[in-house]
Amino acid sequence: WKEEIDAQVAARLDVARVLARFAFGRLVRPKTFDDVWLVNGLAGYVAVQALSSLMGGNWMKMHIMDAMEKLFKSPCYGGVLQSTDWVTKNDPAQLETSSALTRSMLLVYMIEQRVGGDTLRRVHNDLVLKAVEKVVSPPYGAGEVERTDALSCTPFLKKIREFCNIDIRQFVGQFLSTPALPSFTCAYTYKKHELEIIVIQTLAGNTSLESAKYSSDAFFWGPMTIRVMEFEGAHDHQIELKGEAYTTKLPCHSKKAKHRALVAQSGQADSERKSMTASSSPVLWVKFDPNMDWVKKLTLVQPQTAWTTMLKNERNVLFQFDAARSLRNMVGNRGIVLESTMDALVDALLDKKNYYRVRVEAALSLAENRGFDKLLKYVREHYFYKLGAAAEDDYMVRANEFSDKAEYFVKRGIAQALAILCKPAVTGQTDATESVESEAFELLYRLLRDNNDAHNSYRSCSYLATLVSSLSDAALARSKPEDTELATSEIEKYFKACRLGVGPPSRGELSAACIVGLTRLDGGTGSVALLEQMMASKMTYLERKGAFVACTWLAQRSLGVIEWLLTIVGQAREPPRIKRAIVRLLDEFIFVRDGSREVLAGLRANTPLAMRICESMMGLLNQVSPIFKFQLANLVLKIWGKGVPSCFLSDQEYKKTREGIERRQRAEGSYSEIGVVKTTFDAPSPVKVEKVKDERKERGEIRKISAAAEVKREREKMSSTGVPTFTFLQPVKEQPIPISIPCPA
Hints:
By secondary structure, the chain is α+β, with helices and mostly antiparallel strands. It is built from 31 helices and 9 strands. The protein is about 55% helix and about 10% strand. The strands form 3 sheets. Strands 5-2-1-7 form a 4-stranded mixed β-sheet. Strands 4-3-6 form a 3-stranded antiparallel β-sheet. Strands 8-9 form a two-stranded antiparallel sheet.
């Protein structure tokens, strides 16, 4: 078999990044820590530009968009890239984290969008290449290469102003001096042949401001383009954003009489035509920041007909993808989906000229909007063939052939869409929807059971992993014992084949998907022995990561699994990337998944298990890897805040402190009804925590402190291989979310 398509794409991106960072790190050095972001950003953006020539411009646009979404999901949004704070000066490892590298690359991309590619290339040739030319290469064996010049941010931005007469120093500076990022909520209304625009800005990740009352200087400012598509053509308008809220009026260029005539001549349904005529709006749709000039999160509120028109008539991949994603879950949000919307989604899925990400998003939107018949018809026609004319259900799975890479990704997206179809309908369960959901589960099950790679020249492990994950999601959504049994038996077959080495070699993604699927379907009762056995054996990186993901699902039933994972992190034989992966998974599990509120309450409660988990995390802060320490410190502070963790507080002390903080928050206007107290990211001192804990233990203010005998008993439950067992699992108790108080001097 040939290498997997996913592995090929990932390998190209990794090789490009490594080569670019090697070249910039070898030949160009930053002048100070404040200039590290520029070297990293140029290296990352050069890698993306090199791959765009190989994989196409659409891939680059989607990659930039994915990088923005990834940055908003990161723990600290990339952190502060340029600051006089002692943390940046004394712990520069945070500048090398994945989120910081992504933020640096996006800042260089944003600079190019504002000054142009030609200007950026001239500045690169004038500064970077000259710095490379000054490198003195001694004769062979004479020693290391001597670097004689450094790259600095200040002359870089000055050179840009010199070449194009655009001063972007203040605009870029606001993205460098704060970890915050702008999040925009936009809307518009048509009135008196004008378009009233409103843009509301919020700050995502601004941990330096605890109050909800921000000053005007804290918000991001700068020009933003708005594209208005009317009946007579598109018109671009530029506004200057400043402050929390911005409103303006834009003129419409189309004539009202011509608009009504075009609506009357259109072939749309009567209900849609009446609504469009009544509004008398010549505006088809509006797109804010059409060229992605901002690193931002943007939510646009506009009618369903506008998104449908954008999906049908636009050829820009960003516009199509945004429209297809915005049309998701119209049933759940508004209760009705227009027939033209469903037709537009089907056309986007069938059109092979569309980028594959747009087709996948259209399939997922069809599933969310309960487009049963259209989606199931597509699956039967493209992935099955009929054996006879008499029986309707007599279908056989077509053999896989992944020579068309776009169709390969679409097929994986269809598997995810079938899993969405198996979810219960929002408007109630009927016999018709029950039969359709059963058919969707049956098709998904048969795709996995009858998978045929006889004529496939590519490995299909990633595709099978997607089928396994989708089948487990579908079985959990249907909650029927017979479906769960079918899914479990089929997933077990693939898992045993992977462990025995049967089939094409893989990186471990199929085994990882099987581990997670079996753990979720089993509910944790029978998968404990399986995980213990796998942890004691040799596994690939992806298999170990899948086992850790399965452990986080088990942690929803017991917080003891978190302590078990922290014990693995503390083992010296584990590689650094495994430790960082565990911390990222814990962060996602505690703060992102469903049920995270109960888990967070259990970690903040005054219980021996919560105290042991807190002590383990604080002890791991002494690890050698600076990037790991930075990630773990952020996780500790997000759970317990600064000062003494709430799990070490007595009930009386907790109640008194909580009432005081709530009174102060009400006075400041920052009180939240759910009781979540905003905390700053100041590192707690383990020494102070131990001191206060000992003092309160002597006064009898801390209940149920974990005794040495209990700790020794837990250590004795470890297996002979040094891997702790799951025998100490304890259920998560429903408790109010505690808080953290400042540590006394």
